[in-house]
Design goal:
The complex is a heterodimer of chains A (about 250) and B (about 850). Chain A has one domain (about 1-250): Purple Acid Phosphatase, chain A, domain 2, CATH 3.60.21. In chain A, strand 3 and strand 4 (about 25) form a beta hairpin. In chain A, the strands form 2 sheets. In chain A, strands 8, 9, 10, 11, 12, 13, 14, 15 and 16 form a 9-stranded mixed sheet that branches. A 7-stranded mixed sheet of chain A has the order 1-2-3-4-5-6-7. Chain A has 5 helices and 16 strands. Chain A is of the alpha/beta class and about 250 residues long. With about 850 residues, chain B is an alpha/beta fold. Chain B has 33 helices and 31 strands. An 8-stranded parallel sheet of chain B has the order 1-8-2-7-6-3-5-4, with helices on both faces. In chain B, a hairpin with a 2-residue loop joins strand 28 (about 755-760) and strand 29 (about 760). Chain B starts with a strand and ends in a 7-residue tail after the last helix. Mean pLDDT of chain B is about 85; it is low at about 765-770. The chains are: A alpha/beta (about 250), B alpha/beta (about 850). The interface between A and B is large, with 53 and 63 residues.
Chain lengths: ~250, ~850
C-alpha cells in the first residue's frame, strides 16, 4: 500500500519501505526492556522481545528484498549504562541484521544514551540523524537544526496507536501516521516495533500530552491520516486523527 | 482420622487443671461452658483439636486454660528451659494486642499468692510487622513463653536463622479464626508454614473457628489430612432467633426511595428499643452511608458519640474507643460491612441487624452469633430485605440457618504462587533434596494433591530457567544443584536434585512476603471532589465516553492524568464497561440450590397456597405477602407462556427483545458458577454469530446481549457448552480480559515476579512504565509458565466456581436438569427484572480479531459517510 509516492507499507508489519533508498525503516525496539524492568521495577518477566523481532525482520526482508535497514531510535531501552542483556541483545541483533542487510544505520533515540559504548565495540554505525536524497530520518525527541533540502521527515518516538470502538466491539491498533506538516514537508511517524510496546492512543490522548516537539510545532497531529498495521488484516487506511477522535466520542 | 468429641463433665475436667488455675477460675466464673469443658479435656489429652463455636463464647479462653495449666506444671517441676512453648496465630494484627492483654491479666492475678513469683517465667510476647527491631532482639535473648503472631510474621520467624532455634521447644500452636484463613491463600501459606515448623518441633494443633462448614474439612485443613483431629462442635450451642422483615407493605410496587426511607424508620424503631446493636451492610460505601443517614434523619439518638462506622482501615485508637464506649453502654449502634475485624466481645451487643442479604447461611449465623451476652443467652438477628429477590433469598437463608443446615466454604488448593514463596523461604532454612521438600509440602492439606510436575515447574521458575543463562543472576531466587554441581533447570526425572538459597533472596523474602495483594488504586474525581477509588487495571482500558458503576452510581469517564481519573455523573444511562470489581459477596452455591427448589415449589399455585406453604418460614407478614405476590406474578407470566408448573430441575431461558436481543438464563446457582457459565456461553455465542456479546452476571442467572438484527439459534447455543469442554472454552474466554490481567498481576506479586519493596525502598519506578497488558502479553508467549497456570486456577476455582458450573452442566446432560426455552418476546419475566436493570456488566470480544477489525472498520466508514467525508478514505 502506498503511503506517499515511493514509500510503501510492508503488509501488516510495523515498518515502512523507501523504494528510492532501498531502505526499510523501523523504530523503538527497546531491547533490554526486560532487564530494565527487573532492575528498576523489580518486575521479572521472561525475555521474549528479541526473538519475536528477529522473526518479523526476516519476514520484512523476504517481502521487500531491501538491502538496507534503518533503526530510527530507541534501539535499546536503558537510560543509564548498558546492562548485560542489552549488550548481548544488541550484539545478537547486529549479527542477524548483518546476515540480511548490506547496510545498517542506527539513528540515536532518547533511550540510547550509552549506545555508543556498545556500538563502537561491535562496529555499529550510530548517527544523530540521517539525511539522504531529501529524506530526513530522526528519532523525534528533538527538532532538527534546519530543513535544508528536506522533502520528507520520518520520526519515531511517539509509538502511535488508535482505538476503535462501537457497541460492544473495541480494538486497539498500531498505526503509521502520515501527512503534510505546516511547512509542506511529507511527514511520517513510525509505530513502535517492539512487540511488547502498548502504543500511545493518539485519538484519545490530548494533544498537549504528546511527547514529540514536532507535534507541538510544525505538525498538527489531528490533520495526519493513519494506516493501521495488524498481522490479522495487513495494512489498511484510516481517516484523519481528528475524525478518529470524533468516531470514538460518537460511539460512546 | 477425624472424630467428634464426646461430652465430658465439669468435675472430670476440674481434676485435670492445675490447682492454681482452677482456684483462679472459680474465683471469677461460676462454671465452664460446654465447649470449654471439652476443649480442656481434649487438649489435655494431647490431641489436635478444632473448636467451632460462635464468636465470643470463650473459645480462646478455653484453649489457653489447659495450656497455662500445663505450663505451670512444667515450671513447678523445675522444667524451665528457654524457648517458645506456645504460638498463637491470628490473621488479625489488630487483635493480637488484645490477646496479650487478655492473657496477662489472668496471669497477673494468678501470681498473687504465696510462692508464685516463679509464674513470671510465663511471659507473653508479640511479633508482627509492627514489632520494632529492638523488640525482636529482646525476644531473641529472652524468648517469650507464649508468642502471639500473624501468619506472615510466623513465616519469617521460622526462617530467621537465629530466632528459629527458639521454636524448637514449641508444644502448642493455636490458630484462631481458622475458618477465615482456610478460605484464602493466606490459609495455604500458614498451612505450609506449619509444616516447616513441624521440622523444628513436634506440637499440638488447636484450631479455633466460628460457625462454619464443612467442619471436617476445616479439621483436616488444621492438621493435614494424615493426622488425627478431634472436633468440638459447639456451633449451635446458642439459641438463635432470626427474622426477615420487609420494610414496607408492598415491596413489589414501592419505589426504591420509599423503601429506603422505610428501612431507616424500621432501623430507628429497633435501635431505640435495644441497648446496643450491630448493623451489617454489604459494602463499605454502604456502611458510611447508613451512619451518615441515621445521624441526619434521627439526630435525637444518633450522634458522633452514639454511632460509629467500623471497617478494616479504622485505626487502633478508634477501635479501642469504640470498645470503651461499648462497655460503658454509650454506643447505640456500630455499623460494619465485614465481620472479621470486629474483635468486640459480644457481651455488649443485644441485637444484630443485617441490611440486605449476607449471601451465605454461615455468614448469617456468624454475624447473628455476635449478639447475646454469653453462650447461654439468645442470639437475636433481624434481616431487613431491600427487594423481592432479597426477601426470597434471606427467607430461605434464615429458614435453613435455624435448621442448622449450612452451606460450604471452599478451601484453596494447590496455589502455585504461595508455593513459590514458601519454596523461597525453605531455601533460606537449608539446602533441600527436592523429593524431601515435595513430601513435606504434601503433608499440608492445601497441597496434598500437588503434582510433581507443577512442583518442578515452580522450582524452575524460581531458579530463573525462563531466562537466558547470563541473566539468571538477576532473575533467580533459589540455587539449583544436581550431583553437587550448580545447574539452571531440572528435568522431571531429577528426583535427587537439590535447591538452596541465593544471596539476595532473604531480603526479597522479608520485604515482600505475604499473600494479601497490593492494589494500586487510582483516585476518581467528580470535578474537584474525590468520590472513590478504582484499580489501576480498570483505568488502563477506559476511553472517553465509557460509563461504569462506582459506589452505586453511574459515571462517565472524561480523562485521566497519572493517578487521578476525572468523571461526570451519568445517572440516566447504562454502564458500558464491566463492574467486575464489585464489592458484593457472591451467593453461596448450596444456598442458591435451596432457593431454586423453594421458588419452583411455589410456582403454579395460588397466592393462598403459597402463604400456606411458607407459613413456618421466619419472615414477617409483609415479607411473606411479598413472596406470595412476587411468585404469583411469575406464575401468571408462565401461564401466559403455556407453562403450568416448574420443577426444581427446570431452568428457564428467555429470549427478550428490547433495544438489544437478550438471552436470559435463569440459572440460580450463585454468581461464581454463573460467572463461569456466562463467559462460556457468551464465548460460544460470539463465535456462532461473529460478533461481540454483552454479558450481565448475577447470583440468580445471567444475560447475554447482542444487536437486534442478529439471528441466534438458542437451542444450538445451549448444546455448545458441556461439562467436557467447559475448561477449554473458559481458558480461551478469559485470557484476554481485565480480570485475567488483574489476577495475573497479583499472582506475579505473590511469586516475587513483581516486587513491592526492594532493599527497603518501595518500588515507585515502573508503575508508569509498565502495565498489566505488557506483563500478560509477554508471559503468554512462554510455555508451561506456572504463574499462568495459577492465574487460570485461581480464576476458575477460587474467583469463579467451575466445579459447580460443571456439576450443573452434567445434570443437564443427564436429563436431571432441563433448559426450558421460551419463544422470543418483548416482555421480560418478573424474575428477570433485576438482572436486566443493570445493563451490560462485561463484554466478550469477538475471538476472530480480523473480523472484529473489519467490523469496526465498517462502522467507521458508515460514520464518515454520515459526515459526507467519503473523500477521506
Amino acid at each position: 500500500m502506498q503511503i506517499f509516492k515511493g514509500i510503501k507499507t510492508i503488509d501488516g508489519k510495523r515498518a515502512v519501505y523507501f523504494e528510492e533508498l532501498d531502505l526499510v525503516a523501523i523504530s523503538d525496539l527497546q531491547l533490554g526492556e526486560e532487564t530494565y524492568l527487573a532492575e528498576e521495577a523489580k518486575l521479572f518477566i521472561p525475555q521474549v522481545q528479541l526473538k519475536i523481532m528477529l522473526e518479523e525482520i526476516n519476514e520484512i526482508k523476504d517481502q521487500t528484498k531491501a538491502n538496507r535497514i534503518l533503526i530510527n531510535g530507541d534501539l535499546k531501552h536503558e537510560f543509564k549504562e548498558a546492562t548485560f542483556q542489552e549488550w548481548s541483545e544488541v550484539k545478537k541483533l547486529h549479527e542477524e541484521l548483518k546476515k540480511l542487510f548490506s547496510e545498517i544505520i542506527v539513528v540515536r533515540g532518547n533511550h540510547d544514551n550509552y549506545l555508543l559504548t556498545i556500538s563502537n565495540k561491535i562496529g555499529l554505525n550510530v548517527v544523530e540523524e540521517h539525511i539522504e536524497k531529501g529524506y530526513l530520518f530522526l528519532h523525534g525527541h528533538k527538532l532538527p537544526n534546519d530543513y535544508k533540502g528536506v522533502h520528507t521527515i520520518v520520526i519515531g518516538h511517539e509509538q502511535p496507536a488508535v482505538i476503535l470502538k462501537s457497541g460492544y466491539d473495541r480494538v486497539k491498533l498500531h498505526v503509521i501516521l502520515y501527512g503534510k506538516d505546516k511547512l509542506g514537508h511529507r511527514f511520517i511517524c513510525l509505530p513502535a516495533f517492539s512487540p511488547i510496546a502498548s502504543g500511545v492512543e493518539v485519538n484519545v490522548t490530548p494533544k498537549e500530552e504528546l511527547l514529540s516537539p514536532f507535534f507541538h510545532t510544525i505538525v498538527d497531529i489531528d490533520e495526519l491520516k493513519a494506516i493501521a498495521v495488524d498481522p490479522s488484516t495487513g495494512a489498511f487506511k484510516l481517516p484523519k486523527v481528528k475524525l478518529l477522535r470524533s468516531f470514538l466520542l460518537e460511539n460512546a | 482420622m477425624i472424630k467428634y468429641a464426646e461430652r465430658h463433665s465439669q468435675e472430670e475436667v476440674e481434676k485435670l487443671l492445675d490447682p492454681i488455675v482452677l482456684e483462679w477460675f472459680k474465683g471469677r466464673y461460676k462454671s465452664f461452658s460446654t465447649p470449654q469443658i471439652d476443649a480442656i479435656y481434649y487438649i489435655h489429652s494431647k490431641e489436635n483439636v478444632l473448636v467451632s463455636s460462635p464468636t465470643g463464647t470463650g473459645k480462646t479462653f478455653a484453649a489457653f486454660l489447659d495450656i497455662i495449666s500445663q505450663l505451670i506444671q512444667l515450671y513447678r517441676n523445675g522444667n524451665n528451659d528457654k524457648g517458645v512453648k506456645v504460638i498463637y496465630v491470628s490473621p488479625l494484627k489488630a487483635l493480637i494486642n488484645d490477646i496479650k492483654k487478655n492473657l496477662l491479666v489472668p496471669l497477673e492475678e494468678m501470681k498473687s499468692g504465696p510462692e508464685r513469683e516463679w509464674l513470671s517465667h510465663i511471659n507473653v510476647g508479640i511479633r508482627t510487622s509492627d514489632s520494632t527491631s529492638s523488640e525482636k532482639a529482646k525476644q531473641l535473648l529472652k524468648p517469650p513463653t507464649i508468642l502471639c503472631t500473624t501468619p506472615e510474621s510466623l513465616a519469617i520467624a521460622v526462617t530467621a536463622p537465629k530466632f528459629r532455634e527458639n521454636l524448637r521447644t514449641v508444644k502448642w500452636v493455636i490458630v484462631d479464626e481458622i475458618h477465615a484463613l482456610a478460605e484464602s491463600k493466606r490459609g495455604s501459606y500458614l498451612s505450609l508454614t506449619l509444616e516447616l515448623l513441624q521440622e523444628l518441633a513436634d506440637f499440638q494443633r488447636i484450631g479455633l473457628s466460628a460457625t462454619t462448614s464443612p467442619i471436617e474439612e476445616i479439621a483436616m485443613f488444621l492438621a493435614g489430612s494424615k493426622r488425627d483431629v478431634t472436633i468440638i462442635d459447639a456451633r449451635f450451642e446458642k439459641k438463635t432467633v432470626i427474622e426477615v422483615l420487609s420494610p414496607v407493605k408492598d415491596i413489589v410496587r414501592t419505589s426504591e426511595t420509599k423503601v429506603t426511607e422505610a428501612t431507616y424508620s424500621l432501623l430507628y424503631r429497633f435501635l431505640k428499643n435495644s441497648k446496643t446493636a450491630l448493623i451489617f451492610t454489604n459494602t463499605r460505601s454502604g456502611t458510611e452511608r447508613v451512619v451518615a443517614n441515621l445521624k441526619k434523619k434521627f439526630p435525637d439518638i444518633f450522634t458522633d458519640e452514639t454511632i460509629g462506622a467500623h471497617h478494616s482501615s479504622v485505626s487502633r485508637d478508634i477501635r479501642l474507643d469504640f470498645e470503651d464506649r461499648l462497655k460503658k453502654g454509650q454506643l447505640k449502634a456500630i455499623v460494619s460491612s465485614t465481620s472479621l475485624e470486629l474483635g468486640i466481645d459480644i457481651g455488649y451487643i443485644d441485637l444484630v441487624i443485617q441490611l440486605g442479604s449476607p449471601k451465605s447461611i454461615i455468614r448469617l449465623l456468624q454475624r447473628v452469633g455476635r449478639s447475646g451476652h454469653n453462650i447461654n443467652s439468645i442470639s437475636r438477628g433481624i434481616i431487613i430485605a431491600n427487594d423481592n429477590d432479597d426477601i426470597v433469598e434471606t427467607t430461605v437463608m434464615a429458614y435453613y440457618a435455624l435448621r442448622r443446615e449450612l452451606d460450604k466454604i471452599n478451601i484453596v488448593k494447590n496455589a502455585l504462587d504461595v508455593l513459590s514463596q514458601i519454596i523461597v523461604s525453605m531455601s533460606l532454612i537449608k539446602r533441600w533434596n527436592v523429593s524431601e521438600a515435595y513430601s513435606v509440602i504434601k503433608r499440608s492439606y492445601s497441597y496434598e494433591n500437588l503434582e510433581w510436575k507443577d512442583f518442578i515447574d515452580v522450582i524452575n521458575y524460581l531458579a530463573g530457567a525462563y531466562h537466558s543463562l547470563e541473566e539468571r543472576g538477576v532473575y533467580s531466587k533459589i540455587s539449583l544443584y544436581k550431583d553437587g554441581e550448580r545447574v539452571d533447570r531440572l528435568n522431571y526425572e531429577d528426583r535427587n536434585a537439590e535447591f538452596g538459597k541465593k544471596k539476595s533472596a532473604r531480603m526479597i523474602f522479608y520485604l515482600n512476603q505475604g499473600t494479601i495483594p497490593d492494589e494500586t488504586k487510582v483516585v476518581v474525581y467528580e470535578g474537584k471532589r474525590p468520590i472513590g477509588t478504582l484499580e489501576e487495571e480498570f483505568v488502563e482500558r477506559l476511553v472517553p465516553g465509557d460509563r461504569f458503576v462506582l459506589a452505586g452510581k453511574i459515571y462517565e469517564f472524561l480523562n485521566s492524568k497519572r493517578m487521578n481519573v476525572y468523571v461526570k455523573k451519568a445517572d440516566d444511562s447504562k454502564p458500558t464497561v464491566p463492574a467486575w470489581f464489585s464489592e458484593e459477596l457472591p451467593l453461596s452455591y448450596d444456598l442458591a440450590n435451596k432457593i431454586q427448589a423453594f421458588r419452583s415449589s411455589l410456582l403454579g399455585i395460588s397466592k393462598r397456597e403459597v402463604l400456606e406453604k411458607i407459613s413456618d418460614y421466619p419472615a414477617d407478614e409483609n415479607a411473606k405477602k411479598a413472596i406470595a405476590e412476587y411468585l404469583s406474578l411469575m406464575t401468571k407470566f408462565l401461564k401466559s407462556k403455556g407453562i403450568e408448573k416448574l420443577s426444581s430441575g427446570d431452568y428457564l431461558v428467555e429470549q427478550y427483545e428490547s433495544d438489544k436481543f437478550n438471552i436470559i438464563f435463569h440459572t440460580l446457582l450463585g454468581r461464581k458458577a454463573n460467572d463461569a457459565l456466562s463467559r462460556a456461553f457468551g464465548y460460544k455465542l460470539s463465535e456462532m454469530i461473529g460478533s461481540s456479546v454483552g454479558v450481565m452476571v448475577s447470583d440468580n442467572g445471567f444475560v447475554l446481549s447482542v444487536d437486534n438484527e442478529v439471528k441466534v439459534n438458542v437451542k444450538k447455543l445451549l448444546k455448545s457448552v458441556s461439562s467436557e469442554n467447559l475448561d477449554e472454552i473458559l481458558h480461551k474466554a478469559i485470557s484476554n480480559t481485565e480480570l485475567f490481567r488483574r489476577k495475573f498481576r497479583q499472582v506475579a506479586a505473590r511469586s516475587f515476579m513483581i516486587l513491592r519493596n526492594y532493599k527497603g525502598h518501595p518500588i515507585s519506578v515502573g508503575k508508569q512504565q509498565f502495565n498489566s497488558d505488557l506483563l500478560v502479553k509477554v508471559v503468554q508467549k512462554v510455555e508451561n509458565f506456572p504463574l499462568l497456570k495459577e492465574t487460570y486456577r485461581e480464576i476458575l476455582q477460587d474467583y469463579m466456581d467451575i466445579s459447580a458450573a460443571k456439576e450443573f452442566l452434567r445434570k443437564v446432560e443427564s436429563g436431571e436438569y432441563r433448559f426450558i426455552v421460551l419463544e422470543r418476546s418483548n416482555v421480560p419475566s418478573p424474575f428477570s427484572f433485576k438482572m436486566l436493570a443493570w445493563g451490560s456488566s462485561d463484554v466478550i470480544l469477538m475471538e476472530d480479531r480480523r473480523k472484529l477489525i473489519l467490523k469496526l472498520h465498517q462502522k467507521l466508514i458508515q460514520f464518515l459517510r454520515n459526515k459526507n467525508r467519503d473523500a477521506d478514505i
